[in-house]
UniProtKB/TrEMBL annotation:
Organism of origin: Ceratopteris richardii
Entry keyword Oxidoreductase: yes
Top-level taxon in the UniProt lineage: Eukaryota
NCBIfam families given in the database record: aroE
Domain Quinate/shikimate 5-dehydrogenase/glutamyl-tRNA reductase, residue spans: 177-235
Stated name of the protein: shikimate dehydrogenase (NADP(+))
Annotated InterPro entries: Aldolase_TIM, Aminoacid_DH-like_N_sf, DHquinase_I, NAD(P)-bd_dom_sf, Shikimate_DH, Shikimate_DH-bd_N, Shikimate_DH_fam, Shikm_DH/Glu-tRNA_Rdtase
């Protein structure tokens, strides 16, 4: 029952259930946690599910707000892949993975607060994800059932920023990030992913964080430098610098907030914001007014999901469909 029981309702046809209950409309449930008939059919495609259907899902707490079931299920249907993607409300990620350990459970997305604990549960971890200390994607390898961990948050954000820079510099064959100054605001999960990704591409990385000790810890771990938020206001980076906000400042409903004063934005060639609700944050609007190229957290979100889909299925994702669904849902 409730949110924990949603998976037994959604996976009922896979395990031979004759029927599962759905409500006619949200608010009309006859028992706690019933999905609507519309969601059962239109999001989860319940009529397609059979004993062979592979199960994927989002491990997190909370998971109810996530857009991932919308986009991954639609993408499975689009390419004719026999899979279902469900929300897994999980308290303890190790217990969860030990329990759901059959080949049926083929892959997982991982979100707050489990990205670090999930890494420790993987049998093998991609080197960049290991350096970051967090995985957001786990795939069960078909040949031996081992769990392989990746971090597509990093690749999603960094590739979006590289594409934004190519718009300025043109393509030169090597990463346009190489040799640039890359300033990350925030030292949490997204901050680490951006900072390691940028360092990996040959950037000089600066970390500015509200809690200075966390900034210092992260900066020291990757050979970068730490700044306080006060120092960031007057920081003069070299030409061509990148600024990446990885805090939740400016996120809905606090959309009038911004992590850095507009005047300071003039020092950057490209400004990225991990926040994607709204897509066009105050930071991005002001950065654009200052002449910077802007890259939205929407791009990071879309690209991490697209890369994740490739890890899950081995097949390229229907990118435009996933982006269209995501835009409509925000
Ligand atoms: P997290 O691990 O909790 O880290 C939060 C960071 O934000 C910390 O550095 C924290 O500073 C800082 N922070 C929070 N509130 C602040 C405030 N009022 N003023 C200044 N700094 C503040 O969270 P996360 O997972 O990294 O997520 C951060 C943001 O990135 C969220 O908005 C999330 O939605 C977004 N995100 C987007 C994507 C995407 O795909 N676009 C992916 C992941 C995350 P302290 O250390 O001082 O507490």
């Amino acid at each position: 029952m409730g949110q924990y029981g949603l998976i037994s309702r959604l996976l009922s046809p896979k395990y031979g259930g004759f029927l599962t209950f759905g409500s006619l409309a949200s608010g009309k449930e006859s028992a706690s946690g019933q999905p609507t008939l519309s969601d059962l059919n239109n999001i989860y495609g319940l009529r397609r599910i059979n004993r062979q259907t592979k199960v994927y899902g989002l491990i997190g707490k909370p998971v109810g707000h996530s857009k991932s079931p919308l986009i991954h299920n639609a993408a499975f249907r689009e390419i004719g892949y026999d899979g279902i993607y469900v929300p897994f409300l999980v308290d303890n990620v190790k217990d969860f993975l030990d329990t759901y350990n059959t080949p049926d459970f083929a892959g997982f997305s991982v979100t707050i607060p489990h990205k670090e604990a999930a890494l420790k549960c993987c049998d093998e971890v991609d080197p960049l994800a290991k350096a970051i200390g967090a995985v957001n994607t786990i795939v069960r390898r078909k040949s031996d059932g081992k769990l392989i961990g990746y971090n597509t948050d990093c690749g999603g954000a960094i590739s979006a920023i590289e594409d934004g820079l190519v718009g300025i510099t043109g393509s030169t064959g090597e990463s346009p990030l190489k040799g640039r100054c890359f300033v990350v605001i925030g030292a949490g999960g997204a901050g680490k992913a951006l900072a390691y990704g940028a360092r990996d591409k040959g950037c000089k990385v600066f970390i500015a964080n509200r809690n200075y000790d966390r900034a210092k810890l992260l900066a020291d771990s990757l050979g970068g430098e730490a700044l306080s938020l006060e120092q960031l206001n007057t920081f003069q980076p070299p030409r061509g610098a990148i600024l990446a906000n990885t805090t939740s400042v400016g996120m809905h409903p606090n959309i009038s907030e911004t992590p850095l004063a507009k005047d300071a934005l003039r020092n950057y060639s490209l400004v990225f914001d991990a926040v994607y609700t709204p897509i066009n944050t105050r930071l991005l609007r002001e950065a654009e007014e200052c002449g910077a190229v802007i890259v939205s957290g929407f791009e990071m979100f879309a690209r991490q999901a697209i890369q994740q889909f490739l890890h899950f299925t081995g097949v390229g994702a229907p990118e435009q469909l996933m982006r269209d669904i995501l835009v409509r849902s925000l």
